[in-house]
Write a sequence for this structure.
């Protein structure tokens, strides 16, 4: 299949680049479509594993740490010895739904989630948010009612995966097109310096194929969770090197164009 040949050639075969970009800009866009379809599939699988682990962790925490509760007329009542807390100073769950609860306890912790009779408080290092139960108008429910929701969440995961796939595909394709225009302009500068006869459209096409390596590197890094300061410099340098190598190839018109 021509796509896989182009994928292989996009890594290192600069003479073949000159043949690829002589086809048309539309052919380069079609390459971006196929590449984005594959990339989106891989990203969706990765996000799916993270999503599954997150739901399982949340469910295990909910089942093991959250006691039985009832919500009625905008007030929360928890069936456990109170105050109840789990965690540490840097992050914890604190529950005290007694009428005499001391809500100033929030000031004693850097981060945490605090449940009181009439409100919930989410505290982080950046800000503290208060949610008054009376504003929700959620009606009456118990922990048993919440337990019934989890099986329904599993059913929505398929929809979430489809949404992630489509969303990332659109993002990837748009980024391909945007990069082709940006680096196409940069390619004109390189072309002028090196006195090449490549057109803007050909340079834009070359930028699409050259984006392959930076995108694969970025994907690989995302699997390692490594944070690289000023990462944007890496793909920028790679793209410039690729454009220089592509422009450097001579005798464009004498090369045979593969059909």
């Amino acid at each position: 299949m021509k796509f896989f040949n182009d994928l292989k050639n996009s890594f290192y075969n600069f003479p073949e680049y000159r043949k690829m970009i002589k086809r048309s800009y539309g052919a380069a866009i079609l390459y971006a479509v196929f590449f984005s379809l594959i990339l989106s599939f891989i990203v969706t699988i990765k996000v799916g594993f993270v999503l599954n682990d997150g739901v399982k962790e949340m469910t295990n925490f909910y089942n093991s740490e959250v006691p039985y509760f009832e919500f009625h007329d905008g007030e929360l009542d928890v069936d456990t010895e109170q105050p109840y807390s789990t965690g540490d100073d840097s992050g914890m769950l604190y529950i005290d739904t007694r009428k005499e609860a001391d809500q100033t306890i929030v000031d004693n912790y850097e981060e945490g989630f605090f449940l009181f009779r009439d409100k919930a408080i989410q505290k982080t290092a950046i800000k503290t948010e208060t949610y008054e139960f009376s504003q929700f108008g959620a009606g009456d429910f118990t922990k048993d009612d919440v337990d019934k929701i989890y099986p329904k969440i599993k059913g929505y995961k398929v929809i979430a995966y489809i949404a992630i796939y489509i969303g990332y595909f659109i993002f990837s394709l748009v980024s391909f097109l945007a990069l082709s225009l940006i680096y196409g302009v940069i390619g004109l500068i390189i072309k002028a310096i090196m006195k090449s006869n490549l057109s803007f459209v050909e340079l834009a096409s070359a930028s699409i194929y050259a984006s392959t390596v930076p995108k694969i590197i970025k994907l690989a890094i995302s699997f390692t969770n490594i944070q690289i300061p000023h990462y944007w410099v890496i793909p920028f340098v790679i793209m410039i090197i690729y454009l220089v190598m592509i422009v450097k190839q001579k005798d464009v018109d004498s090369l045979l164009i593969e059909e």
The chain is about 60% helix and 15% strand. The beta strands are 69-72, 75-78, 84-88, 91-96, 112-116, 119-123, 128-132, 141-142. The CA atoms of residues 60 and 107 lie 28 Å apart.
